[in-house]
Each structure stands twice: as C-alpha cells, then as structure tokens.
Amino acid sequence: MASGTPGTERNRLATAGARAATVTSLERQPRGDIWMGNIFFAILLFALTIALVGLAAIILQAAINGAPAFGWNLITNGPSTLNPEEAGFRPAIIGTIYLILGVIVLVVPLGIGAAVYLEEYADGTRWWNRTVELNVQNLAGVPSIIYGILGLAFIVRGPLDLGFILVAGSLTLALLVLPTVILASREAIRAVPPSIREGSLALGATEWQTIRRQVLPASIPGIVTGVILAISRAIGETAPLLLVGAATFVTFNPTFTGDNGYSALPVLIFNYATRPQDEFRVLASAGVILMLIVLLLMNSFAVWLRNRYEQQW
Amino acid sequence: MEARDTIGAFGQRGPARPVPSLEAPSPRYGEKLIKLSLALCALLSVVTTTAIVISLLVPTIEFFGEVGITDFLFGTNWAPTFEPASFGVLPIVVGTFSTALWGMMFAIPIGLASAVWLSEYASPRQRKLIKPVLEVLAGIPTVAIGIFALIFLSPQIEKVFPFMVNVPPFSAGIAGLAIGLMIVPIIASISDDAMRAVPGGLREAAYGLGSTKMKVATRVVFPAAISGIVASLVLAGSRAVGETMIVLLVAGASPNLTLDPGSSVLTMTAFIGQTATGDISTGSITYDTIFAVGTLLFIITLILNMFAIRMVRKYREVYE
Questions:
Q1: Which domain holds residue A142?
Q2: B186-220, pLDDT tens digit by residue?
Q3: Could B304 and A141 be called an inter-chain contact, meaning their C-beta atoms sit closer than 8 Å?
Q4: Do A189 and A286 fall into the same domain?
Q5: What confidence score (pLDDT) does residue B9 get?
Q6: Are residues A63 and A81 in the same domain?
Q7: B28–A45: do the CB atoms touch at under 8 Å?
C-alpha cells in the first residue's frame, strides 16, 4: 500500500537482494561447464569433418587417379586385356543402360501400385496387410548379395530358367530396389492430408478417381524422388550382378535376351580394379568418376526436387 | 404457423420425387479390378520373400545331407573347395564380424556426433546444406568406396601403421574403415531423425532447470531418442555384415579365424561373391555351400533388421 511503512521497505530490499543474487548466479555459467561445452562442440565438428573429408577423399582420389584415362575412349571403346591405354567401357555402359531401363519398366508400376494399395486400400488392422508391410520393411534390409542368390536360383536357373541373360539381371535389380520405391512412395502418399481425399469423395468421386486425380498428382514429387534414388542405387549395385552372370569381358554391345553374355559398368570397374597392372587401376578410377558423375547428378536432382516441391498443407 | 407450413410443403414434395439413393449406381467392377491388381503388386513382396526363402532352403537342406550341421556351425577350418574339403563356417563368420566390428568402431562415434550436431547445434541453413551432402555419401556405390580403400587407404595406412596391413594390400581393418565410411550416413541420418522427434518441451524444461547445451544434448535428448539411435546402429550393423564389394576388394580371401585388424580375412559375402562368379554346376557341393552360407547370412541380417524395425516403431509410438 503506502510506500513509507517500514514493512514494505524491508520487503523491497529483500526482493532486490534476492533478485540480484539470482541474476548473478544465472549470468555466469561455471567455468568448467563452458569449457566442457566448447570441447564437446569441437568434438562434434571434428567428427562431422571426418565424415565430409571421407566423402571428398573418395571423389577426389578417383578424379586424380583416373584423370589420365578420362576421355571419350572410356565411352567409345570396349574392354581390352592387351592394351589398357585404349580400353574403355562401351559394352558395359550400354549394358547398364539396358539393365536400368528394365528396372524402371518393372519397378515404377509395381512399386507405386504396392504403395497405393498399402496406403489407400489396405486395412492396417488385418493381419495379411500387416504382414505385407513388415515384409517390405524387412526386404529393404536384405543384403544385396542375397538377391543375387535369389536371381541365380530362381531367375537364371530354377522356375524361370532364363539363363544368364540381361533380362535376368534387370529382374534381380528390380526386386532389389522395389522395397525402396515402395517405402518412399508410401511416405509421399501419406503426406497428402486426408481432407483432400474426403473432399474428393464427398463430391462423388470414386476411390480410384480420388487416387488418380488427387492423391497421385499431389504425391508425384516424393514418388519421383524415391524412384530416382532407387535407380541410382541400382546403377551402382555390383554384388548381385556378379551372381546372375554379368560377365566382364564382353566386347560387343549386349542385347536384352542375347545369351552371349552382358556386362555392366560397376562389374567391369570391379574387374579392372582387381587386376594388378597400374593401367587397369587408372581405368577403374576413371570408370568410378564416370559413374559418380551420373549418380551425383541424379541424386542432386532428386534432393532438389524434394526441396523444391516439398508441399506444406 | 408459417414455419409448420413450410415443413409441410417439404413433406408433401418428398414422396413426389424419389429420394436419391446414396448407394453406388453400378457395382463398379472396374474399381474392384484396380484394387485387386494393386493388391497383387503389394503381394509381390511376399512372393519375393517366399522365393528367397525357398531358393535358400532347398540347396541348404541338400548341403546338410552331406555335411553335419554341427561340423558346419562349429568347425574352425573353412576349405570347401580343397581336397579333403572342410566346411567349418566359423572362420568366415568371425571374418564377417571382424570387418563389421572395425567398421562400427569407426562409424558409431563419427555418425552419432554428426547426428547430435545436425539435430542440436546446426542452424536450419547449415542443416539444409550438410544433410543432403551426407545423403550423397550414402549414395556412393560400395564398389567405389572399395576401390578408394584398395588404391588409396591401404597403401597410405601401411606406410604409417605397418601392423594394420599384414598381407598388402589386404586387411580386415581397412575393409572395416571403408565399411565405416559407408555406414556413417545411415547412423547420422536415422539418429538425427530420432533426436529431432524428441519434443521441444523436454529441451526447454532442461534449459529452464539450468542445463547447458551439452547437458541437454547428452542427458536429455540422447536418452529420449535412444530407441531410434539403437535402431540406426543395428541397421548399420546389418548393412556392414551384408556388404560385399568392399570386402571382396580389400579384405583379402584367406579364411583366418581372427579379429586382428591387420590380417586378411574371408567374409561370408565375399565367399558367395567370389565362388558364385565361376560357372559352377547346379547340385554340386560347392553350389550348395553358397546357399548354406547365404542362409546363415540371411538369418543374421533378418534378426538384426527385425530388431531395428521394432525399435523404430517404439520411438514413433512415443512421440508422434
């Protein structure tokens, strides 16, 4: 009340004192804590730097090592054991392009179809739908060489019995990246808010019309990003191809079903790298650079696409 | 009065015009057909798994018809193509774990520290720049990382630490280092997601109680995100165990039962990759051996993956 009475004056002094004490204790962090915090931050930055330097080193090393062999020869010439200076990757590059075409044709409809079913139609409380979901997640983690075994036993031999042909390689790679496409597409479809679907259904659209005209167009950027990332994984995948017959020294251009063998870029790179002569190692590094240029362009495009069209509803 | 009249008017009009039915005017077989074909796409994943299991199991059963299961699992001599052949799988299992272990020893600190920085210290701009770069690292084909290790890492490390490379240029430790480089982005990316899923309220409460930034990161956010972090480590471990090209290039091919980082080892994946490239005849013991090793590898990675999937679900349930 009145500010002259002794009681309030004492209160005021006490509050001011307490406030000053609190402020001083809050203003200063203990020295040890500051030091620890700085050291911790330095460690974090150091670790991150190692990861980034590792990335840069992989690219730089391949660029420096492969520079002498880098030229049009790489694309126009075939492999040669006799004169590595003249050798290139032409049949392997064409083989990889064919393989990837096959993968795209198989993976895009199947992957998006499965994702649409799981997100739009499947009743998540039913055991069979949950089984499929768990299954897809597990398949995404199966080592690629196991897919090679599957390709060898089921596609090359066994039930499908295609033999060591390019289509068998395509099928194997498609099965390998299918879970990635499904998971990414599901993520993209899930990001479309339910109100869009409800609005469409309320206007009398059928379920499929809603999906085709509303849900899919809205989720296309996410799906395309997932597909690009999956394709770039398929391009670099080597292990399963070793098992399903990607041969290394194919000097002619491969065809889809020709049984004279086919080759793929990473497989030929691997083969060159295991040869003891330095010329072949240079060639392998040049091949790596070729592959990395394509992959980095694709991945950057995918990341750009995701950031550009990331929709906030 | 007026109001009742209006209602009456509506009531009279009702029966004159039939109430439109809300049922679909046609059975819409097309819709059902579409749903069915989409379901078949989803079913393909189950078919794939079944095919994997069958293609692994049939030759594996044949294999165990000729080789005792305990000889296989606990034998310490791996020489399947020699005379007399010996099928003790322990050396290549230990070889696999050796490369994966050295990889994890490198990748866990680097990956987790990067994740803490990304989620707790980085400004949104720094994050937007660094995270895609790490994702690009995840997109580098493993054959490229393997060649980097073979041509660059191995000779360089041999110069400084000769004990790391007993049989130049092959070494389990260097294969591990390369594998570590490969799995850092997996650990960093998934752990970062897990830590960012921790609600901001927990951080603010800790700051309010006077915690430093480091304490908030290590004592609050990290433990709160632990299931996601463990999931990222397990997934990375599963990738490390299943990696083929790096070990094929750098680990050598000698089935040594040792965890010594300097020694050359044969891993399960490298054995499959190396043996299956030759044109081996179906039904031979060598052919069946590939599948027996494949089955073992499949079981190990399946257990790791199932565990990781459960852990990821756990943190999603808690915070979303």
A1: 71-309
A2: 999 999 999 998 999 999 999 998 888 999 999 99
A3: yes
A4: yes
A5: 46
A6: no
A7: no
Q: Is the preceding peptide bond at B169 cis, omega within 30 degrees of 0?
A: yes
The 8 Å CB, 24+ separation contacts for A35-41 are A36/B212, A36/B214, A37/B212, A37/B213, A37/B214, A40/B214, A40/B217, A40/B218, A41/B121, A41/B214
Which residue does chain B place closest to A136, by CA atoms? B45
pTM: 0.86
Cα separation, A148 vs A172, whole angstroms: 7
CB-based contact A295 B139, cutoff 8 Å: yes
* A103: nearest Cα among A38, A169, A46, A13: A169
SS3 A246: strand
Regions of chain A where pLDDT drops below 50: 1-3
Q: Does A29 lie in the same domain as A121?
A: no
Interface test with B, best of A44, A133, A210 (most B CBs within 10 A): A44
Yes or no, beta carbons of B143 and A236 under 8 Å apart: yes
CATH number reported for the structural domain that contains residue A241 in this entry: 1.10.3720.10
**Interface contact flag, B272 A145, Cβ < 8 Å:** yes
Domain count, chain A: 2
- Give residues with Cβ within 8 angstroms of A84, minimum separation 6: A277, A279, A280, A282, A283
Chain B residue whose CA is closest to A265: B143
Residue A133 forms part of a structural domain? yes
Q: Which of A17, A46, A69 is the last residue of a domain?
A: A69
In the numeric block, the tokens 């060639």 are attached to: A283
Give yes or no: residues A143 and A216 share one domain: yes
* Cβ partners under 8 Å of residue B13, min gap 6: none
Nearest to A138 among B117, B145, B302 (CB): B302
Chain B, nearest residue to A269 by Cα:
B143
Two tokens at B293? 């090793």
Q: How far off is chain A from B2, nearest CA to CA, in Å? A: 34
Spatial distance between the Cα atoms of B180 and B107, rounded to a whole number of angstroms: 5
Which homologous superfamily does the CATH classification assign to the domain defined by B87-319?
MetI-like (1.10.3720.10)
pLDDT of residue A158: 79
Whose CA is closest to B144, among A138, A209, A233?
Answer: A233
**Can you read off the two tokens belonging to residue A33?**
């804590």
Among the candidates A14, A46, A69, a domain finishes at A69
Name every chain A residue with its beta carbon within 8 A of the beta carbon of B306. Answer: 138
The answer to whether residue A1 sits within a structural domain is no
Answer whether A145 sits within 8 Å of B248, measured CB to CB. Answer: no
Summarised one tens digit per residue, pLDDT across range B136-154 is: 888 899 999 999 999 999 9
Q: Where residue B6 falls among pLDDT bands split at 50, 70, 90?
A: very low
Dist. CA A128–CA B219, nearest whole Å: 41
Statement to judge: residues A84 and A61 lie in one domain: no
